[in-house]
Automatic annotation (TrEMBL):
EC number assigned by the record: 2.1.1.221
Entry annotated with the keyword Transferase: yes
Region Disordered, residue ranges: 1-70
GO molecular function terms attached to this record: tRNA (guanosine(9)-N1)-methyltransferase activity; tRNA binding
Keywords, alphabetical: Methyltransferase, Transferase
Catalytic activity: guanosine(9) in tRNA + S-adenosyl-L-methionine = N(1)-methylguanosine(9) in tRNA + S-adenosyl-L-homocysteine + H(+)
Enzyme class: transferase
Protein name per Swiss-Prot or TrEMBL: tRNA (guanine(9)-N(1))-methyltransferase
A GO CC annotation given for this chain: nucleus
Ribonucleoprotein found in the keyword field: no
Bias (Basic and acidic residues) ranges: 44-70
SAM-dependent MTase TRM10-type domain sequence ranges: 109-299
Superkingdom, taxonomy of origin: Eukaryota
Length: 343
């Protein structure tokens, strides 16, 4: 005799079968190729090495702080009362100056960002690919977005930045960023096609597969950068997405100014920085040579050499600084690279 599973209000047994458990979610990502597995393993080793280096730098910073504090205490101990008062007052004055300068810079930054929101160029980072990425890949993309925000904030001609498709795991990871809730950007859980439905005719998705070369940035247009880790697993995904949504596409005119090396992967922050640098200079050559690291280019396109003037010493210095500071680029957080093929 079967055991009763429960009873209703009238004391009768409930013979209804228990609902079956929900099936496990299906992983929509295609299986990794052997080459992709090697890349993933290499990335994991890099991440482990970077974490170790970060821990060493943190320890070194702590020791340096202790050394400076000890030196300060010794200086005060060996000074007369009058000298001590002067040293303390001088230190307070320097600290106050730094705080005032920081506050002034913050005010100027907010003025620039407010102006960009009112009349500036709108640029969207499409993060609606989280379902195709692993946790580590999402984490890497989040760091790229953090770098995008920092680059845009420092710019003399910033854009107005949008994040669309912010939901699920992506939203959770973004919320972990210090001060993310105070970022001066637009955050949308919806896709841009819904969030900007009234401006659909002005949407332009930047993708390498487009036949349209971007000659200039138009304030009426809203340019979209697609964020996706290891794009080789999803070739042409942003172009397909744009075509299905019926929006314009374009690619950056990189092929007119330089030849890329075998690795034609640009990170989300690099594409954003190229666009922001162009807004500052209205010069694609300066934007490309300032942002794209030397290791990613093989030289100028011979057809266009006659059109180009030598880079100034200032630009060469900026390029060197960009190479040194471009640590996040090596995380291989990829986009559908909106560059023009040089072939």
């Amino acid at each position: 005799m079967a055991a009763a599973t429960g009873n209703d209000d009238n004391g009768c047994f409930d013979n209804q079968p228990k609902p079956e458990s929900e099936p496990a979610p299906v992983n929509l990502s295609p299986p990794l190729s052997k080459n992709a597995q090697k890349k993933q393993l290499k990335q994991q080793r890099y991440e482990a090495k970077k974490a170790e280096k970060k821990a060493q730098e943190k320890e070194q910073k702590r020791k340096e702080g202790e050394r400076k504090l000890k030196e300060w205490e010794e200086t005060l101990a060996n000074a007369t009362e009058e000298e001590r008062l002067k040293l303390i007052e001088s230190r307070k004055s320097l600290r106050k100056e730094r705080m005032e300068k920081r506050s002034e810079e913050k005010e100027k930054k907010m003025e620039r960002l407010n102006r960009a929101k009112e009349i500036g160029q709108k640029i969207v980072v499409d993060v609606d690919f989280a379902h195709l990425m692993s946790e580590s890949e999402i984490s890497s993309l989040v760091q790229q977005i953090m770098y995008c925000y920092a680059v845009n904030g420092r710019s003399t001609s910033p854009c107005h930045l949008w994040l669309t498709g912010v939901q699920g795991k992506m939203s959770t990871e973004l919320d972990k960023l210090p001060g993310f809730e105070k970022w001066f950007i637009e955050k949308e859980s919806k896709c841009y096609i819904e969030a900007m439905a009234d401006q659909k005719d002005n949407l332009v998705y930047l993708t390498a597969d487009s036949e349209t070369v971007l000659d200039d940035l138009d304030l009426k247009h809203i340019y979209i950068i697609g964020g996706l880790v290891d794009r080789n697993r999803f070739k042409g995904i942003t172009m397909t997405k744009a075509q299905e949504q019926g929006i314009k596409t374009a690619k950056l005119p990189i092929g007119e100014y330089m030849k890329m090396s075998s690795s034609q992967v640009l990170t989300v922050n690099q594409v954003l920085e190229i666009l922001v640098k162009f807004l500052e200079t209205r010069d694609w050559k300066t934007a490309f040579f300032t942002v794209i690291p030397q290791r990613k280019r093989t030289g100028l396109d011979p057809v266009d050499c006659s059109k180009l003037e030598p880079l100034s010493e200032e630009h060469l210095e900026e390029e060197a600084e960009a190479d040194e500071s471009d640590l996040l680029e090596r995380k291989k957080v990829c986009v559908e690279v909106p560059l023009e093929s040089s072939s």
